């Protein structure tokens, strides 16, 4: 992060302010961990922070400290719009383009207060006054740790803040197995554990606390798994009917896409999830090695993300979407 940005932010935070902190739509562990870590940090600086998520976050993240204070834009647009309009400073975390917040974008575009972006995705837009953007990091949470250090306030990181940061690093690193997990990442994690993070309980809360219905849905997803061996590709489909059959709740499909990469010889996988309410097919892409799913998602499915993990969507039917995907794969 540039010294000029750090100094400007230090000046902005020198006096108490009303601050809105925003994650991307359908926030994951990194988005919720980073926003809540920053929330607790700003409270210590005597600010009035509020986390406003565009829509609901998964139930498996509801144990995060003070997650119950998070306001949901889609559930109360009038109140959250008023808070945004009264905010003196806006932080946007774990995304770099305003369309990633859905309808909230219409409100954010009308605001004239400073925006601070902290994010690790590719090709950031230029809406922010101050930007800390670096694709070398595997998580925004690791960047939040650095951000607090840049401000000279590392002594304020306590067990609560450390737990939030640890959660985002753990989830976005694939439990420390993705390529962007560095020695520095492990040194940060070691510091977080020294600050009191329960590194055996947090993974249990995130990954080993599933409902029976979620496991049944996972079973159906694996039954639907298809392989295109000649193109080293696999994919999974889940229809709205299948989601309803197993009483889907937000977060139940988290991580299922990764099973497609556990097959020997597969380097590219996807999951296609039907959402009849939004009239779209939601898509997650994963890859191994140098196959760039970020570019694939941008070029063909109106999405983006990282080289090895990205998302997109399709307005076509499930059948038409799968045909489009298979046709594209044969041309790769």
Give a verbal description of the structure.
The chain is α/β, with parallel strands linked by helices and 332 residues long. It folds into two domains: 3-206, inorganic pyrophosphatase (n-terminal core) (Alpha-Beta Complex), CATH 3.90.1640; 213-331, Roll (Diaminopimelate Epimerase, Chain A, domain 1). It is 38% helix and 18% strand. It contains twelve helices and twelve strands. The protein has helices at residues 3-12, 29-44, 77-86, 104-108, 140-150, 159-172, 183-194, 201-207, 212-223, 240-245, 293-300, 318-331, and strands at 18-22, 48-53, 71-72, 89-93, 115-119, 130-133, 226-228, 233-238, 268-275, 280-287, 304-305, 309-314. The strands form two sheets. The chain has a six-stranded parallel sheet, with helices on both faces. α5 (140-150) packs antiparallel against α6. It is globular. The chain starts with a helix and ends with a helix. The relative contact order is 0.10. The mean pLDDT is 95.
Low-confidence stretches: none
Question: How many domains would you count in the coordinates?
Answer: 2
Structural class by sheet pairing and helices: alpha/beta
CATH-derived topology of the largest domain: inorganic pyrophosphatase (n-terminal core)
Strand order of the largest sheet: 3-2-1-4-5-6
């Amino acid at each position: 992060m540039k010294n000029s940005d750090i100094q400007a932010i230090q000046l902005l935070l020198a006096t108490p302010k009303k601050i809105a902190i925003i994650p991307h739509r359908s926030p994951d562990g990194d988005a919720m961990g980073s926003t809540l870590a920053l929330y607790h940090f700003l409270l210590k600086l005597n600010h009035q922070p509020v986390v406003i998520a565009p829509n609901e976050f998964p139930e498996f993240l509801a144990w995060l400290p003070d997650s119950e204070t998070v306001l949901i834009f889609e559930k109360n647009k009038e109140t959250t719009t008023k808070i945004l309009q009264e905010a003196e400073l806006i932080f946007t975390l774990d995304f770099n383009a305003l369309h990633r917040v859905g309808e909230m974008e219409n409100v954010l575009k009308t605001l004239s207060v400073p925006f601070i972006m902290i994010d690790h995705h590719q090709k950031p837009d230029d809406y922010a006054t101050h930007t800390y953007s670096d694709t070398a990091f595997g998580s925004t949470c690791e960047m939040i740790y650095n951000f607090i250090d840049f401000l000279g306030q590392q002594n304020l990181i306590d067990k609560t803040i450390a737990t939030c940061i640890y959660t985002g690093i753990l989830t976005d690193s694939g439990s420390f197995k993705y390529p962007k997990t560095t020695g520095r990442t492990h040194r940060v994690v070691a510091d977080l554990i020294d600050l009191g993070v329960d590194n055996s309980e947090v993974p249990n809360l995130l990954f080993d606390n599933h409902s029976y219905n979620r496991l049944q849905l996972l079973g159906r997803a694996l039954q639907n798994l298809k392989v295109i061996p000649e193109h080293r590709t696999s994919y999974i489909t889940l229809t709205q009917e299948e989601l309803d059959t197993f009483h889907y709740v937000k977060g139940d499909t988290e991580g299922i896409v990764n099973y497609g990469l556990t097959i020997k010889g597969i380097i590219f996988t996807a999951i296609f999830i039907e959402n009849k309410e939004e009239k779209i097919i939601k898509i997650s892409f994963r890859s191994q090695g140098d196959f760039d799913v970020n570019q694939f998602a941008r070029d063909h499915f109106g999405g983006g993300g990282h080289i090895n993990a990205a998302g997109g969507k399709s307005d076509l039917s499930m059948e038409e979407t799968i045909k489009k995907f298979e046709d594209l794969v044969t041309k790769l």
